[in-house]
Amino acid sequence: MGRAGITREQVHEAAQALLEEGIPPTAPAVRERLGSGSYTTINAHLAEWRSQNPQTPANVPEMPERVRSAMHQIWAQATAAAQSGLETDRQALAAMRRELDKERADMGAEITRLERELDDAREQVEHLQASFSKAQADTREAQSQILDLKVENARLGERNANAEGRAEELRDQVQGLQKELAQLAATKGTTKPKRRRSPPTTK
Fold this sequence. Notes:
- The structure is a single chain.
- By secondary structure, the chain is mainly alpha-helical.
- It is about 80% helix and about 0% strand.
- The chain has a domain at about 1-60: Arc Repressor Mutant, subunit A.
- The protein contains 4 helices and no strands.
């Protein structure tokens, strides 16, 4: 059976503790946890413990040294390849960062230019609004003057109509006078003057 100092309960407790810690409960791991014990005894107790805990992973034999060495070489090569790939990624990331910094600087310059253009556009809008307001004021003043001129034109038209009516009346009067004068002239031409009697002579 087991050697003195290594009991069934100790192996089971060590295996359960390793399992709870997420470590596979192998014979080397149990022996390391216990600090002593033969592999034969530990494997026998572990087999019993696994039969009572079927959900636990199966016992994994110790990895041979040649396999471990090959795995170490593979791991070293994979690590070197990963580091090389990581360096490549770092360089690509640095280049991308430089490109992003350049694009950010270009974008900042473009934003500054657009802000200046926006300020200029705002000034032009303000100038146009002022010009439009002045044009509206001038238009209102011109409309007021046009209205005054229309009123004055209407007055002048009325006065002109009155003057034309008065002139027509005067023409009619002149024509009437001319007719009367013509009639008088005709009447005077047909009337004979009376002969005067000479005064008697005295002897």
